[in-house]
Amino acid sequence: MPKLTWDQTGKRLYETGTDRGVLFVQTAAGGHEAGVAWNGLQKVTQSPTGGEETALYADNIKYLSLFSNEVFEGTVEAYTYPDEFGECDGSKEAVKGLRIGQQPRKPFSMAYRSYVGNDTVGTAAGYKLHILYNLKASPSERAYETINETPGAITFSWGLTSTPVLIEEEGFQPTSVLEINSLNAPAAAMKALEDKLYGAAEGTSELPTPDEVIALFKTASAG
Asked: How far apart are CA 164 and CA 116, in angstroms?
């Protein structure tokens, strides 16, 4: 076997940043409306819970371990949000320019990008696409403060929960999260996925299901 080495030039990887946010509001039929750009996206935090051990004992020893299902939770922070996110945040437009709060919150999905950097080319090394499915946003605190000698912009923040979506591909459980790494994925598959998420040429931004993403990558790998 080859000898292990550490901290080789070009192999000192790290992740940073978030951009290219896309919002997909869920329809009553369970599909999604066309994606819209999420400007001002500042931070997306994934904080999964669950996966906790329940130890079972027999014959005076630890017999086996059972683990609970992992549940997606997180937060999203932004300086602003698309108008379409209003109904996901519990407000509904009565007439243009007038929104009424404390209304039912629509589910949504979203995508965003983070950078993968290394020690030689920085953040130009690559990137990851993150797709979060079937989300619900919780109410957020908003502090409106007088403008003073140290002005700042309001940061909006929402807690996120999710109900996982089914994957028909054999061997996979339902999921709320897809992560695609450009350093490992076929370039053709990355382009096809980004064309769907961002809208190719004059096309409409669409949210692919996990199975559709798998099919894209299988087709690219076969080619």
From this structure: 26
Beta carbons within 8 Å of 73's beta carbon, 6+ residues apart: 47, 48, 49, 159, 160, 161, 162
pTM of this prediction? 0.91
DSSP code of residue 110: E
b/e 182-191 (16+ beta carbons within 10 angstroms → b): beebbeebbe
- The amino acid at 121: V
pLDDT in tens, 31-48: 999 999 999 999 999 998
What are the pLDDT digits (tens) for 142-175?
888 888 888 888 899 999 999 999 999 989 999 9
Alpha helices in 57-209 (DSSP H): 187-198
DSSP 87: G
In which element (H, E) is residue 210 found?
helix 210-222
